Amino acid sequence: MSVRDVRRIAGRIRWYVRELTGESAYDRYVAHARAHDPDTPVMTRRVFEHSRTDAREADPREGFRCC
């Protein structure tokens, strides 16, 4: 297996893990926000994650957290 193959496989694993954990959601948000209204300030990652958590907890279809 060549170095190129290892890098390609590692890149695919990284992509999968980021999608699985939701880490790539912020990157998609930033790309969408900048494409649709470049003058609007973009939320920081911390604010974005808080807003995602609040929205998830407010939606009964997503379940709830007891703790």
UniProtKB/TrEMBL annotation:
It comes from the Bacteria. Pfam families: Sel_put. InterPro entries: Sel_put. This is YbdD/YjiX family protein. It comes from Streptomyces durocortorensis.
